[in-house]
Every structure is written in C-alpha cells, then in structure tokens.
Model the fold of this input.
Amino acid sequence: MKGIVLAGGGGSRLYPATKSVSKQLLAVYDKPMIYYPIWTLVTGGIREFLIISTPRDLPAIEALLGDGRDLGLSIAYAEQPTPGGIAEAFVIGKDFIGDESVTLILGDNLFIGQEFDAQFAAALEGFTGGAEIYLKAVPDPERFGVATIGADGAVQSVIEKPADPASNLAVTGLYTFGADVVNVAGQLPRSDRNELEITDVNAHYLHRGLLRYMVIPESVQWIDTGTPDSLVAASLAIQQHTRDQESEIGYVEIAAFRRGYLSQDALLRIAKRTPSDVYAARLRLAAKGKAS
Done:
C-alpha cells in the first residue's frame, strides 16, 4: 500500500496567512499541519509517500520533510501546477502508484481519536481492491459529498453537496483504491470547473459494485482545517487530546517507530538533535517504552 498526501490549493480561505506559505505548513498546535495526515497514513501501515503540491509550495514542504529517511519513510514529490481536482492526483502519481493499492489523504484533514487508529489500520490490512471511502456523521452534510447506505448495508449513492441530503454521512478526505484507479481517473471527463472529480471516481466503483466504506466512530473528530475557525478548533482539540491522554497524534517519528520503520536508537538520535525540549522529551518517552 502506498500513500499520497494532496497538499495543494491556494489556501484562499486562510488568506493572508497563506499569502507566502502553504496552509499545510501552518501550525496546528505544536506541529505543521501536514504532519497529521502523514501520521494517519503511517499508523495505517504506509511507508512510501508521494506528496503533491503547487510549484510555489513544494520546495518548502520538501525542505521540511526531505526524502523521509530521517523519519523511517520514503517520500517523493510531484507538482500540481493548477487546481485540477482530487482525482488528478492519481494521474500525476501514475508512476509512483505502479501496480500497488494507494490511499490518498487531503493535507488539511485531521482525524483525532485513538479509536480510529486500529480501525483504519485493519481496513488497510484487509483491503483487496476496488475502493473504500471513510464516512463520518456530520450535522451539515450538504457541505460535503454524501453517501447513502441501503438496507443491505451497501453504498447506494454518493452525491456531491446535495441540497437535500438523504443521509448525514459525509465522505471525508481519505480514500483507498486499487491500482486501477490510475486508469479510472485518467479516463474521466473533466467537470464544469475543469477538474477530475473524486466523486466521479467513487461513482465508477459504485456502479461496478466495488465501493466499500467504513464509518468513523462518533468519538473521533474529523476536522478540515481550511478555515481560521477550524484551524483554531483543530489546535485546541490536539492540545486537549494530548494533555488528557498523552496522545501520540501527529508525532510522525513515533508512529514510524511503532511500525518498526525506525529503531529505538534512531528515535533517540532524532530526540537528541530536536531543539524543542518538550518535543524531544515526548520522543524519548516513546523510545524508552514509557508511553503508548
């Protein structure tokens, strides 16, 4: 399983904070925003990453993460010169994906709650092809793609921003597909806004009877950090979660260590060269087995 983080967009809703920097590099409590989606995929067992962003922002993201070696990961980069839709990521990432399954996460989507980690990892481990979407019950489904589930437990429809939603299950910015998604996305017609729409990809798999889903537990928060209010809400949620549960959310290094991608010695070396005493202490605790 490979992972794609789509970290593009102009961040217009966060302007002027994003006038000279990618929104994915803004801080969410104590870490850059992009750490959280990477952490989510690492907890699911993904080690190879492609990060897609704009020509302006990609160098700064690469300066932050490098080739991933220091994190126990492999990270490659690709440009999306203009907004072309979420599904365009699979066309851009064709060579990276190859013949492997892939999970894509939007760079501004956070999933906060320990109950999600094991459930997501199990979903990826059991994935055998087709498509899987991750749904969350929300109070305002008309803002999102909405999935309806039939009496037989199967997905009946996925509709983008319906005026009168038939359910409250929003499609989050997290998707898993078989390797054939490259061909599916590549054959899509562009929408009226000249984009390759992820809803059209999901509809393709639905029509073939290959669209599965996982409902994210009620106790797990899903936050799209694309607005000032949601950015603050995410920071407060991470702060509270970390304070109350000694959570490891967003600590990419610790997630890699838990997965066996980093050795104990490697994690301690990272801690030693980390200038933040608080961050370094958290890494040392994990390395010494005093946190989980």
Notes: The chain has two domains: 2-136+171-261, 263-292. Residues 99 and 179 are 5 Å apart (CA to CA). The chain has a mean pLDDT of 94.
